[in-house]
Amino acid sequence: MTSTRPALSNLALQQVPYSAAWLDALIPMWRASFEAGVGVTDPHPLQEQRQFFLDAVLPQYEVQLALSAGQLVGFIAASAESVNQLYVRVDCQRLGVGSLLLDWAKAQSAGSLWLYTFQQNAVARAFYERHGFEVLEEGFEPTWGLKDLKYGWRRSTGPAAQACP
Fold it and tell me: In this protein, which residues make up the domain named N-acetyltransferase (predicted)?
């Protein structure tokens, strides 16, 4: 059986600011990644998710896209304090896309970030923990009826952050 997963060496990533030209690709990619990660089927029409993105995400967060070979492979919506959305196309996960986007959010942050992820999304939890995030609190997200976790990250300023001579 052959895989349709792109080879890491073939995934030349480009990070660009959000442009409305990508909206029609972003919404279904976001939906597919969410459903795969959380293990639920989103009952809302794609048009509702599109409107949510336009009304609630874009006005409050800076959105960056990850592109490869002219295709959208991920996006992040973040402020200087938090990551609101971070999704990677399902067949491009574990290829550095999320790391590229999260590194951008860390660099433009005020030195710390917080975010929420669903407790049952083991892949996202492992990803954030590999990137230095720690669980701050457990909670419950009423819209989805699922347990969630608030994660936090703080830029290291101690000796461990310095390069070895």
Answer: 13-156
Residue 71 CA to residue 68 CA, distance in Å, equals 5
The SS3 assignment for 122 reads helix
Query: In the numeric block, which tokens belong to residue 82?
Result: 């938090």
> Are residues 72 and 89 in contact, defined by beta-carbon separation less than 8 angstroms?
yes
Number of H helices, E strands in the chain: 4, 7
Q: Which positions of the chain have pLDDT values less than 50?
A: 1-3, 5-9, 161-165
pLDDT for residue 98:
97
Indicate the number of domains in the chain: 1
CATH number at residue 44: 3.40.630.30
Distance CA(81)–CA(127), nearest Å, equals 19
Domain limits at 96? 12-161
